[in-house]
Write a structure and sequence with these properties.
single chain, 5-stranded mixed beta sheet, Immunoglobulin-like, mainly beta, 4-stranded antiparallel beta sheet, elongated, 1 helix
Length: about 120
Amino acid sequence: MFLRKLSHSILLSAMCVTGLQAWAQVSLSTTSLSFGAHTPGNVNGPQTVTLSNRGAVDVIVSSVAASGGFSEANNCSTLHAGQSCTINVTFISATVGSAKGVVTINSNASASPQLVNLAGSF
C-alpha cells in the first residue's frame, strides 16, 4: 500500500514538472535616452543601452531598429542565461525642432518587443 501511494505521488510530481515552461526574460539598463539640444547637422552620441538575459532560457534577438532621426548599432543576437549585449544609439539632427523616436527590440522574450524612448532637439 505504501509503495503504491509513493509511486502515485512520484507520477503526479513528474507530471507537474514536465508541464512547467520556462520563458525568456530580459531587462534593459534604461527605457529612455535624452540627447538634449544640439546644432543641426551634428552627429550626437552614441549613448548605450544594455539588454540582459535574466532568465534560464536563451534569448534570441530577431531585430533592433531605431526611428525618428536616430540610428543604432548593436551586437545582439543570441543571449545565453546571464549574458548581455549593447545597443549604441546616435542622434543625427537634421532640422530645427525636437525629435522623438523609439528603439524597438524584437526577441523571443515574454514581454517582446522591448522599447527605449528617444528624445533630442536641435
